[in-house]
Amino acid sequence: MFLELGPDGVLSALAQDCLAGEADAAVFAPALRAGRPEAETLNTALAQAHVHGMPVDWNACFAGTGARRVDLPTYAFQRKRYWLEEAPGATAAEGKGGADAEFWAAVDTADLSALTATLGVAADQPLSVLLPALSAWRRQRQERSVVDGWRYGVTWKPLADPVASRPSGTWLVVAPAAVDARATAVSEALAACGADVRDVSVDVADLDRAALAGRLREALAGGGADGVLCLLAFADAPHPAHPAAPAGLLLTATLVQALGDAGVAGPLWCATAGAVATAPSDRVVSAAQAQVWGLGRVVSLEHPERWGGLVDLPATLDGRTAERLLAVLAGGAGDEDQLAVRSAGLLARRIGHAAPRTAAGVGADTGTGTGIGTDGDTGTGTPEWRPRGTVLVTGGTGALGGHVARWLASRGAEHVVLAGRRGPQAPGADALVAEITGLGARATAVACDVTDRAAVADLLASLTGTSDGGDAGPALTAVFHTAGAGQFAPLDETGPGAVADVVAAKVAGATHLDDLLEGTDLDAFVLFSSIAGVWGSGGQAAYAAANAHLDALAQQRRTRGLAATSVAWGPWDGGGLVTDDEAAEQLRRRGLPVMAPELSIAALQQALDGDETAVTVADVDWRLFVQAYTAARPRPLIADLPEVRGVLDAEKDGADTTAEEAGNLRAELRGMSGPEAERTVLHLVRAQVAVVLGHDGAATIEAGRAFKELGFDSLTAVELRNRLNAATGLKLPAALVFDHPTPTALATHIRAELLGEDTTPGLPALAEIDKLEFLLSSVPEDSTERARVTARLESLLTNWHKADRAVIGEDEEFSIESASADDLFDIINNEFGKS
Q1: SS3 sequence of 551-578
Q2: CA distance 4 to 822
Q3: Does 466 score more than 50 pLDDT?
Q4: SS3 of 648, please?
Q5: How far is CA 246 from CA 241, 508, 515, 559, in A?
Q6: Closest CA to 714 of 34, 27, 26
Q7: Distance between CA 693 and CA 164 in Å, rounded?
Q8: Is residue 252 very low, low, confident or very high in pLDDT (cuts 50, 70, 90)?
């Protein structure tokens, strides 16, 4: 939403044109318009903001005017509803099989014992006790319903084997210099199918972006590439210069940058092996390679025009799996860009709703752990997770860590250890320790850089009683790793060192804790991940890579029989990930409203109650999110969500309708005589002009009158262009009314475009002057620029009267009397420097 505060709508027009294809997703409202009543224009801008979801303080707007609210008359509706309908099914679900099922079942059967157990009260308690319990129970059920709607999980969807096809043309295959059997097999398979393979080997220590770009150009010998296959992820050992990050991640990031520098436009496919687990029987072999998946999801957002996809391979590439890989590279999987090739078939990654889990399995209703059920039970037979003993919280003095620490203290933890780089010196640390103490737990703030393995080892030793001296206190039973560093910069502007730093903050600490606690029996090992690692987030490539590693690490720990839960969070409110109202509002516009910390904690409790390995928790407004997320290319990852299908179907219907109407218009015009076709298109243009100017109908628009005289300015010119694009299916320029200054001239141009005719005549000199007049209308009055323009116009007019011949440049001369429109336009262009 853009509100222009100025004397006219010039900036709104320019900005709207800059957005090109994205303009439909934005709203531009100028507060003032030249030649229009100020009050009317301002109210129109406020109304535009209001109907597009922006809050407007109408009380302030109408203060002192005597305005009052009135009931709308019934005749205004004429049997057509204007009210938003409630989402279907919500109320019915509560009454039948939803969160209130146990309560209503007890009421229906008059089962007193079941009812009192559900509410957590004794049967002989008076109504004064029952009512508060019922109110609290209802509130907790509503919270649980909200949290249930925030839960998502990753699944893998089997695809039919693509039609046998082979990549063709020139392919760049970029692999680590060290011999790798998998990389060799992939390159050989690609060459065997007839592709022109150009191998580029990269030393793991070489992160020189410019040098790599030069090598890519050299490999292509001045030509282009039909595709790029990156195998650098196979180098998953730590980079020698940046040991906190795998070499493959840094090399892949450098390759993405170098491909842009070298102008290589072929789709980039990044291959991994064992980076994802597609089924319980499948295993994550390399969490380091999973980082490339996080990186790739962001590359697909930042560079959609040259993105191919991610494909995970089995440990051994046999003939069948090689065939599937080749078919994928040849485009056989369509728009799918996150795939796993397995011996059993091809699988595509998907995001879906995740039902709460119980210890017995998936799909049961567990509650949030904050209801009124008996101690140790959620009210549905599911054991409730409770902290005990000593609990370590990394990043404990930060906003997220603080929320977690308070919750742990309130739920029964005896000792909460808050680990952070500054420890007790961190801002607010003393107050947090005091607050936790007031909740009945012992709290200790300690300085520890979790990226330093030795420091983490010393900390853990002090908590397990293995250090020299000191009071270890109760045994360490759980770890919550909330530490991390954010990132807000495009990958193209992020060097290897910056990538490694962001990765280290998340990954190094998790890795050290995992290694050093290998033999410790923990109740919980919780990793705070992010949605950036699940579906990507522009400007957060390194951050996404780090969080993808955490999700993979949790799966690896489960495979080893150890406790692990990774929660990929959306943005928290209350200082957690989102620090100010402006950032929160930006996220809301993108479809990611911030989550209240207390509800996020309820979701965390739910994940622990269900003993879940990985879950995504985010409040997503899919109507808004889908528009931005799918603007540049299809995103099959989210396509199976019912909300997304609804949005995409509506967009498709709209696009199909526009295309169909445009096709019908073309067909009708071809069946008409020349004059009849001209009248039809002219009526269309006049009708759209009338709508833009707010006139009653096309009859009020004079066909031969200049748009400038009709009241057009730069903003209404863009509005008319947008409406004509939608009506005709054409891609018309923003300068439409400049180039074709009357409805008749514009209709002639549009008719020629629709019928594919090259019939647009050269514009006469007067039309060029009309264009200049239109341009000059945007020059503000009483300004230095206006004085300079006036002087130039007077000089031009003097030259016009003064001589029959004018000099253009230094040598070329021509007669003004015989000047063509193009010649005259050249004079204007030379005088004013633009046309």
Answers
A1: HHHHHHHHHCCCCCEEEEECCECCCCEC
A2: 36
A3: yes
A4: helix
A5: 10, 11, 17, 22
A6: 34
A7: 56
A8: very high
The rounded distance, in Å, linking the Cα atoms of 278 and 501 is: 30
CA 429 – CA 420 distance, rounded (Å): 10
List pLDDT tens digits, range 166-190.
Answer: 899 999 999 999 878 888 999 999 9
Residue 245 sits in the same domain as residue 341:
yes
- pLDDT recorded at residue 69: 83
DSSP-assigned beta bridge partners for residue 202: 176
User: What are the φ/ψ torsions at residue 266 (nearest 5 degrees)?
Assistant: -60, 150
Rounded CA separation 400/398 (Å): 6
Query: What would the pLDDT profile of 35-75 be if each residue is shown by its tens digit?
Result: 788 888 998 999 988 988 889 998 888 888 888 888 776 66
- Return the CATH number at 338: 3.40.50.11460
DSSP run (H or E) holding 329: helix 319-329
pLDDT grade, residue 385 (50/70/90)? very high
As beta bridge partners, residue 238 has 246
Rg of the chain over CA atoms, in angstroms? 33
Q: How far is CA 51 from CA 27, 29, 32, 46, in A?
A: 10, 12, 19, 9
Asked if the model's pLDDT at residue 830 lies above 70, the reply is: no
> What integer pLDDT is reported at residue 373 of this predicted model?
30
Percent above pLDDT 70 for the chain: 81
Six token digits for residue 542: 């390194």
What letter would DSSP give residue 505? Answer: I
Q: Indicate if 54 and 187 belong to the same structural domain.
A: no
Strands (E), 148-214: 151-159, 170-176, 196-202
543 and 634 inside one domain: yes
Q: Is residue 152 part of a domain?
A: no
The predicted-structure confidence for 713-743, as pLDDT tens digits, reads as follows 766 777 788 788 888 888 888 778 878 889 9
If asked whether residues 498 and 635 sit together in one domain, one would say yes
Task: Quote the CA–CA distance of 356 and 144 in Å, as a whole number.
Answer: 10
CB of 804 closer than 8 Å to CB of 795: no
CA 229 to chain CA centroid, nearest Å: 25
- Is the pLDDT confidence value at 835 over 80? no
Torsion of CA 775, 776, 780, 786, to 10 degrees: 140
Q: Which residue range forms the structural domain that includes residue 456?
A: 382-640
Does 552 fall in a domain?
yes
The answer to whether 256 and 307 are in contact (CB under 8 A) is: no
761-808 pLDDT, tens per residue?
A: 445 555 566 556 656 665 666 666 677 778 778 777 777 766 544 444
Q: Which CATH number covers residue 742?
A: 1.10.1200.10
The neighbour count for residue 394, using CB atoms within 10 Å, is: 26
Question: Domain check: are 688 and 633 in the same one?
Answer: no
